[in-house]
Amino acid sequence: MSTREPRLEPVAIADLHPTQITVGFREVAAKRKEWRHRAGKTKPDFLGRHMIPVILGPKDRHYVIDHHHLVRALHEEGVKDVLVNVVADLTAVHKDSFWVVLDHHGWCHPYDDEGVRRGFDAIPPSITKLKDDPFRSLAGELRRIGGYAKDVTPFAEFVWADFLRRHIKRRRIEDDFASALAKALELAKGRDADYLPGWCGAVET
Predict the structure, then answer these.
(1) Which of 189, 184, 140, 143 is nearest to 166 (CA)?
(2) Where are the CATH 3.90.1530.10 domain residues in the chain?
(3) pTM of the entire structure?
(4) Kind and range of the H or E element at 171?
(5) What would the mean pLDDT of 152-164 be, rounded to a whole number?
(6) Strands 81-89 vs 52-56: parallel, antiparallel or unpaired
(7) 3-state helix, strand, coil in the chain (%, to 5)
(8) E-assigned strands of 57-141?
(9) May I ask the CATH class of domain 134-193?
């Protein structure tokens, strides 16, 4: 099933299908800023080193299973095409079973901006239709400042986002992100978070 072969021909971002409902718009904005600050000659090299992992699904459609924020940022910056890495070829899987197979492998995350699991039909058809989850932005920034370590657990940042959602009000993130981040860091170092992927809080002896 797994082919893991790069597709050296470009794939249009407009033709890519997400496998989640939300992204953090603040994180997308940060990636846009990073892209704009890159020198022109380094941009093709960056794209070559950041191939987008996809599942090849029914009708040969490409389903993104990681780097949704980067793809959305590149689209908003006017980039038309990206290179992809085909993780698995599921073109032979019937469309009624396709999402179930993705879910089984941890390749989709059908949770909305309230952290509620939805039906697979709630996953938008295009990168441009992804919705904002401020807690995903908070979780991403928390990892960047050392609140927890990068982890191979699928959708680890969303697991942290869901944890933070239960302890911090959404309005606090929207009105005072710095204050929300400080609170998130405090929570991340506590024992209540020790089950989360990448937790690196102090252990009491």
Answers:
(1) 184
(2) 2-132
(3) 0.90
(4) helix 170-175
(5) 95
(6) parallel
(7) 45, 20, 35
(8) 62-64, 81-89, 131-132
(9) mainly alpha
